[in-house]
Structures are given as C-alpha cells and as structure tokens.
C-alpha cells in the first residue's frame, strides 16, 4: 500500500530526504515540497526523476498522507497545525518546537492525526521508551558541538556569549530539556526527542558544551532506571550545508518513513 509524502523545508535534511525518496523507496511517493527560495528549489529538482509540486507550507497537508517537517522551528506550528487538522501523519524534525505546543497532540487525538517523532541525530530511543514503561530515576543528555554549530542560539545571543572567543571545552548551558529547546531551538531537538521518549522535558537534564576543534556533533545519553542502567554515545558527522545538523538525521527520517510502510520493522 503506497503512501504519499510531502516535505516542508528543503535544507540539509529535507533535500537529502527528497533526493532519497525520488530515487525510489518502496511504498512511498514524494508528491510535494515547500521551500523558501523557490528558484533554488527549482534548480535542486534538476536531477529528479519525478519533480514534486512546490507549494506553500499550509498547502502540503492537502496533497499527502505523510507530512515531513524539516523547516526552521519558527514555522513549525503552521506546518504541524495544517497536517494535524487534516488528520495526517506528521513526522517532525524540529522536535524542540513541539515541547511548548503539546496542545497539538491533543488536537491530533481529536482529528485522528499521528505525530511520529524520529530518532533523528540521536540513538537508542527504543531503549529509553522501554525503560520508561517502568520506573526511571534519571535521564541526562550531554551535547558537545563545535562552536560554529551553536552560533546564533537565542540563549547565547541574549547573554552576549561569543563562542568565537572559546579556546577550550566550555559548558554553555545546563538545565532541563524544556529550557534547552527554548534557548537552542536549532541545536537540541535531540534533547526534546529524548524527553518525549522518556520522562518528559522537565525531568530530562541537558548539558551543552562548545568544544573547539571537535569534528563531530556528540551526544551522550545516561539513563538510570529500575530495569536497566545505560549510557549511549553517538558522534555524528555535521552536514556540509548546515553544521548544526548531523548527516544521520535525513537517514533517520528515511528509516522512520520506511517503518511506516514496511512489512518487517525492526526496533520498537
Ligand atoms: N530531530 C533531529 O535530530 C534534528 C533536527 N533538526 C532540526 O530540523 C529542522 C531542519 O533542519 P535543517 O534541514 O538542518 O535546516 P536548514 O536550515 O538546512 O533547512 C531549513 C529549510 O527550510 C526552508 N524554509 C525556511 N522557511 C521556510 C518557509 N516559510 N517555507 C518553506 N521552507 C522554508 C529553508 O529554505 P531556504 O533554503 O530557501 O532558506 C531551508 O532550506 C531544524 O529545525 C533543525 O533544528 C536538525 C538536526 C537534527
Ligand atoms: O544534528 C545534531 O547533532 C543534533 C541537532 O542539531 C539537533 O538536535 O537539533
């Protein structure tokens, strides 16, 4: 049974995902995309086998059964609200933008829409979800990025913190996942996904480090639960077009989409 897909945002994540879908994925058909720069989008379609329709973000939900959001957090609500109102499957990349908008989950319950949060640049959310079916004492995530991967975050800008001046590993933020998502909307979607998989944004603790010379975006999760204790680290290669974003993220979204239509699905 084939499902139609629309992608909002053709940046580091969206363009890679669109190319992969266009190359052919059994059970999935890319039918529409949104982009800010229409001319750039048109030129990106040059090598496509089947050119998707280029539509405003509000219109995507009319065209496809699955709406993949890979746009800046600032336009998340417009994309998500339209998909949910239409009862679609929403796959968000800007997961941090979901935390202060949990009313969207209530709305989805009413319309029959589903919100499927991909693992994204992270790992092991299946184990975190399983642990959270029992008692969990603590969940923490330590994110380490090169300074340029954190530049422009509102938390740093508001405090006048200039990471260009950092010469050694520096802890730039410590707080919960809710605060982290507000202060670093383009950097810690992983913390938001972890919080939703586990014990929620208030109890999930986050540290963000700026590490000069680091070549990988590195996330370490530590879970202390009744059923298990585990520590997991992932070292993602930053994308060339957007160093905030790891190259694994579009692949994770692709794997997530396959899971929506595949006969055999591995991992809970
Ligand atoms: N869940 C996870 O693990 C991860 C999530 N993310 C998040 O995913 C989201 C996308 O990331 P990424 O691809 O790296 O971001 P990019 O900045 O590379 O791409 C975003 C794209 O959205 C487009 N865009 C902006 N405004 C609009 C609009 N109004 N309508 C349509 N398109 C628009 C931009 O267009 P143009 O190119 O024309 O400017 C751009 O191509 C971000 O919120 C990011 O924080 C990132 C990494 C990991
Ligand atoms: O790609 C990464 O390492 C994670 C990231 O940017 C995010 O969570 O927003």
UniProtKB/TrEMBL annotation:
Catalytic residue list: 219
Biological or metabolic pathway of the protein: Cofactor biosynthesis; NAD(+) biosynthesis; iminoaspartate from L-aspartate (dehydrogenase route): step 1/1
Enzyme Commission no: 1.4.1.21
Catalyzed reactions: L-aspartate + NAD(+) + H2O = oxaloacetate + NH4(+) + NADH + H(+); L-aspartate + NADP(+) + H2O = oxaloacetate + NH4(+) + NADPH + H(+)
HAMAP family (alphabetical): NadX
UniProt similarity note: Belongs to the L-aspartate dehydrogenase family.
Note: The iminoaspartate product is unstable in aqueous solution and can decompose to oxaloacetate and ammonia.
Name of this protein: L-aspartate dehydrogenase
Species this protein is from: Muricoccus roseus
Gene: nadX
């Amino acid at each position: 049974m084939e499902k139609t897909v629309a992608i909002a945002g053709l940046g580091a994540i969206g363009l890679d995902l669109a190319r992969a879908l266009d190359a052919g994925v059994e059970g999935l058909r890319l039918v529409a995309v949104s982009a800010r720069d229409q001319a750039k989008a048109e030129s990106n379609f040059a090598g496509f086998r089947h050119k998707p329709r280029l539509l405003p973000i509000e219109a995507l939900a009319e065209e496809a059964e699955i709406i993949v959001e890979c746009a800046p957090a600032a336009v998340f609500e417009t994309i998500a609200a339209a998909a949910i109102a239409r009862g679609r499957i929403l796959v968000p990349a800007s997961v941090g933008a979901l935390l202060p908008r949990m009313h969207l989950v209530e709305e989805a319950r009413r319309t029959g829409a589903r919100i499927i949060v991909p693992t994204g640049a992270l790992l092991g959310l299946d184990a975190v979800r399983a642990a959270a079916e029992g008692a969990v004492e603590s969940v923490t995530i330590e994110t380490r990025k090169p300074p340029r991967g954190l530049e422009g975050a509102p938390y740093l800008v508001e405090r006048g913190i200039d990471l260009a001046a950092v010469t050694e590993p520096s802890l730039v933020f410590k707080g919960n996942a809710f605060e982290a998502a507000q202060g670093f909307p383009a950097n810690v979607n992983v913390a938001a996904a972890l919080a939703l998989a586990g014990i929620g944004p208030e109890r999930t603790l986050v540290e963000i480090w700026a590490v000069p010379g680091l070549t990988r975006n590195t996330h370490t999760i530590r879970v202390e639960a009744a059923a298990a204790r585990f520590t997991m680290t992932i070292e993602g290669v930053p994308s060339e077009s957007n160093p905030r974003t790891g190259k694994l993220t579009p692949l994770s979204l692709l794997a997530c989409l396959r899971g929506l239509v595949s006969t055999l699905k591995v991992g809970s």
